């Protein structure tokens, strides 16, 4: 995966779940606004801007391919959730709440925050940071720990 065409920030989830709804509220509260921004998933509140409702697998793959930053928000330990695995396997820069990745040993791959102001600063920094071959190598190394090889 090469550099992103634009500094798109992506948040994925089932937005009827409290932690995902908090991601929408938190990201939209940034001042100045975080842009470009995209939410993708299910059940976002009516009128949520920049929202892709129920993306197909192909659409979601394209959103990950287009995103410079993926945000994973949860204020409690998730264990390993699908949206985090997908971000690890397909995403570039990842910004996550510290509790969302607690105990997973992926600190070198994910920038962590404990407050929204801290998240905004990390997101903006990641939007400006190039996706280098070194970043890609680190991403592949971490993703390999979560990928299951296919055998016939």
Tag the structure with descriptive keywords.
5 helices; 36% helix; 6-stranded parallel sheet; 152 residues; single chain; 6 strands
How are the elements arranged and paired?
Blueprint: E1 8-14, H1 18-28, E2 37-42, E3 51-53, H2 57-66, E4 67-72, H3 82-90, E5 93-97, E6 110-113, H4 116-128, H5 133-144
Parallel strand pairs: 1-2, 1-4, 2-3, 4-5, 5-6
Report on this model:
This protein is 36% helix and 20% strand. The protein has one domain (8-144): Glycogen Phosphorylase B (Rossmann fold, 3-Layer(aba) Sandwich). The relative contact order is 0.16. The two termini are 27 Å apart. The chain has helices at 18-28, 57-66, 82-90, 116-128, 133-144; strands at residues 8-14, 37-42, 51-53, 67-72, 93-97, 110-113. The model has no long low-confidence stretch (mean pLDDT 88). It is an alpha/beta fold and 152 residues long.
- CATH third-tier fold name: Rossmann fold
Mean pLDDT: 88
Structural class: alpha/beta
* CATH homology-level superfamily: Glycogen Phosphorylase B
Number of domains: 1
Cα distance spanning the termini: 27 Å
* Percentage of residues assigned to helices: 25-40%
Global shape: globular
